[in-house]
TrEMBL record:
It comes from the Eukaryota. This is AB hydrolase-1 domain-containing protein. Residues 11-238 form the AB hydrolase-1 domain. InterPro entries: AB_hydrolase_1 (IPR000073), AB_hydrolase_fold (IPR029058), Sec-Metab_Biosynth_Hydrolase (IPR052897).
Length: 249
């Protein structure tokens, strides 16, 4: 008798502010090795219209996830930094448990936060932080990141930092000032990768956000800075594989 092949969930990866989807390249290369299907999402708030809000970014994420869910696919949504807010928002109506209740296949089975904003409903990046950090430079509705080498990539070699900083783009100011309205993390399993050397969201702040998530959150810790998908991609992939239900040694 032939054995039943269980289809792996599709991993949807969403980058943070100022970045582009290629920040996931080292992670997606490993996901391919482990035979996970994946998609990446390009947020319009990063490098696009300066009027972009969290709702706009959430709608862009939903274009990808709703298409997958409509075709019966299970989805793991992986969120880095800022995208924790629009990614959480985007899960509304697409959680597997809600679709199962309607006798439909597919759905978002897990949220994975990579040093990402897991905030209460009603909070934005700016309100949760109590103001904006000094390394964010404002030019009207355009935000850019100063000292990005130190803030985002402090655990990477200088030569690599230079390459990565050159790839950064602007971020639309409204995206940091529009609030979360749907706390999906209360309704689905959650994994959170805390980064001990993070200079963007301090380690204690990440621990506080894990607490906001409550009992649904399984936390993992690594020694990376803010961008473990670049400095410790194997750790990020291990967390994703664990979120899919794989039992890792």
């Amino acid at each position: 008798m032939g054995s039943t092949v269980i289809e792996k969930p599709t991993v949807v990866l969403v980058h943070g502010a100022f970045h582009t989807p290629d920040c996931w390249d080292l992670v997606t290369a490993q996901l391919q090795q482990y035979q996970y299907p994946f998609r990446t999402v390009k947020l319009p708030s990063a490098g696009g219209s300066l009027a972009t809000t969290v709702a706009d970014d959430a709608a862009e994420i939903q274009k990808t996830t709703s298409e997958l869910v409509a075709s019966g696919k299970d989805v793991i949504l992986v969120l880095h930094s800022y995208s924790g807010i629009p990614g959480t928002e985007s899960a509304k109506g697409l959680l597997k448990k809600d679709l199962e209740a309607e006798q439909k296949l597919g759905g978002i089975t897990s949220l994975v936060y990579i040093s990402a904003f897991l905030v209460p409903a009603g909070d934005s990046v700016a309100s949760f932080l109590g103001g904006m950090p000094p390394w964010i430079v404002f030019d009207g509705e355009k935000m850019t990141a100063a000292t990005a080498d130190h803030v985002f990539y402090n655990d990477l070699p200088k030569s690599t930092q230079t390459i990565l900083v050159d790839k950064l783009t602007h971020q639309a100011k409204p995206s940091f000032y529009t609030p979360l309205t749907y706390p999906a993390y209360k309704e689905v399993s959650v994994s959170y990768l805390l980064c001990e050397q993070d200079n963007t969201i301090p380690f204690d702040g990440q621990k506080g956000m894990v607490g906001i998530g409550g009992p649904n959150v399984v936390s993992h810790i690594c020694s990376a800075g803010h961008s473990p998908m670049l400095s410790m991609p194997s750790k990020v992939v291990a967390v994703i594989r664990g979120a899919s239900g794989e039992l890792l040694a």
